[in-house]
Specification:
- The complex is a heterodimer of chains A (about 130) and B (about 575).
- With about 130 residues, chain A is α/β, with parallel strands linked by helices.
- Chain A contains five helices and five strands; from the N terminus they run E-H-E-H-E-H-E-H-E-H.
- Chain A has a single domain, classed as Cobalamin-binding domain (Rossmann fold, 3-Layer(aba) Sandwich).
- Chain A has a five-stranded parallel β-sheet with strand order 2-1-3-4-5, with helices on both faces.
- Chain A starts with 6 loop residues before the first strand and ends with a helix.
- Chain B has about 575 residues and is α/β, with parallel strands linked by helices.
- The chains are: A alpha/beta (about 130), B alpha/beta (about 575).
Chain lengths: ~130, ~575
Amino acid sequence: MPEKKIRVLIAKPGLDGHDRGAKVIARALRDAGMEVIYTGLRQTPEMIASAAIQEDVDVIGLSILSGAHNTICPQLMKLLHEKGMNDVTVLIGGIIPAADIPALKQSGIAEIFLPGTSTQEIVEFIHKRIPRH
Amino acid sequence: MSEKSKGTTQIAPPAETSSAHRAPSAKELAWQKNTLQPTLEKSPERQQEFTTISGHPIRRLYTKADLPNGDPETNLGFPGDPPYTRGIHSTMHRGRLWTMRQFAGFGTAEDTNQRFRYLLAQGQTGLSTAFDLPTLMGYDSDHALSEGEVGKCGVAISSLADMEVLFDKIPLANVTTSMTINSPAAVIWAMYLAVAENQGADWKKLSGTLQNDILKEYIAQKEYIYPPEPSMRLVIDTFEFGVKNTPKFNPISISGYHIREAGSTAIQELAFTLRDGLEYVEWGMRRGLDIDEFVPQLSFFFNAHSDFFEEIAKYRAARRIWHKAMVERYKSKNPRSWALRFHTQTAGCSLTAQQPYNNVVRTAIQALAAVLGGTQSLHTNSLDEAWALPTEFAATIALRTQQIIAHETGVTNTVDPLGGSYFVETLTNEVEHGAWEYIDRIDAMGGMVAAIERSYPQREIAEASYRYQMALDKKEKIMVGVNDFVSEEKPLDILQIDDTVGHRQADRLRKLRVDRSKDEVARRLTALRTAAKGKDNLMPFIYDAVKSYATLGEICDAMRDVFGTYEEVAIT
């Protein structure tokens, strides 16, 4: 029986439209055999949380470059918790100042990938983190 | 592409290959046989093939065999003469240096006003305004979607009251100001004109540039509000208003910068930008504007990436393509319409978060390419911009970089110093050829709006950006400090945007809404809404609304009511 594919939601929260990174990651994860759903631009935490439930994803990847992470991430983590999605792995890719990283991890974000990360590193992280179905 | 594209025809990108029909001279053939071959046999080259950062193949050596037949003086022309390969002015930077225009904006209008005045005091010669994301999207600072974004990526401007503070004690009659604003450009411009009027400045003498390039928003930067049709109407409204009222102000800066930042190749940047330019020209002509009245005020904006010669070739090719299009395609009679003027910004996407001081070097090399390519104005990025908006310290080094190029290197002593180089001329020809292939293709689709609607440029850019990322991942392309030459560094001190900006802006808006005349605001917004349903030029209505202190969000909402909003089909 074929393995069930890892399901990933790539989301672009906030008002920023710089989607180069989100698109590259979406494609790289798909090429690595994952099922990837890309939300498109300007998603609120509510929209991301409901998409995650509806699509029953294992991973949520947030692309944030705008400096709005300290507003967006706690809201999303709270919503996921309220909806009982405690198992989902939440990752951030983008521009996050070093000083903000401890609090984000404290809130339940599994990992933060900064500029210059290779796509293989992210693929490997997800494979290690998500047990084989 | 692993996902089947939906409903669009797959078209292979135009070939970007090197000149095929070389006929080397007897001397060149003898050199190959007697000098080159023995060397290659002894020590092969480092790589099988050499390509630009865009993946364009580069030959080992360029000689006269690479140049087209004919008289170089006709093909190249002279500076200030068609086809402007060598520059749009006869004396170029000997006559006048480029404008050193550093993009700045953060926090509140007060914060940015202070930075502007600092930069002017340091010898900067023009202003350039960065707006925050809510402003770019036409939302007031107190809108729910603005939470966490106010003042972060630029300055927060929600009404004329903010604009008055932004340009406080800066005489608009004497500085040139560039404003990076697109979907709400007409509204922000109206605010600027209102401040100028309050200062007693003559609109006819105002000089500056509005970005106002909505097409590249759909293609790359994605800060759009309305669908293409009404958005294009607004752009043409500003052209028409400008021809009558602000003849020295550039109502648009047709931008390749963001296309390149989104991951395009140099040829794609050039082709999509110039085809956008042709689209604006055609919409302007359809409005009934005289091409030779409005086109001279159209300006361009290109990226300066790290592949030195490819960038120089791109700027030279840009001028030649624009000249040809204006003269042959539109039968323009005014040489001022033929000469492509452009601003350049060094490539933000080339900056590394790792070993950030290396970014000073990258920026200097990129800026040098822009200068050698004949730019009219230049922004150099700061070393810390892979992390945040620049600190004053970092912004000062970036400005000094331009001043060193201008005053120490001697590259400004002669016009187009690389003209006649076998390599640069061949690359210019190839880049031009590659861009025309894309332009022809987009013409065949029915123009740029049609091409955007079928996601053609978006898809081409996504492909190129993925190819580049894969090349980095495989170390086929090297980024120093990222995928090679890696070392540990201690973190930089970066600019922190105070989280109270949002609250301060919200307080200011609350006060504004109490102080202004509610009836007057309502009356003028209704007038705008009614006009939007018809065909009138909307600039006067927007200007009236701005003067009543209607907010940016209210004005954009009035047009949202009529025009609706745009959602893209996301491609990955």
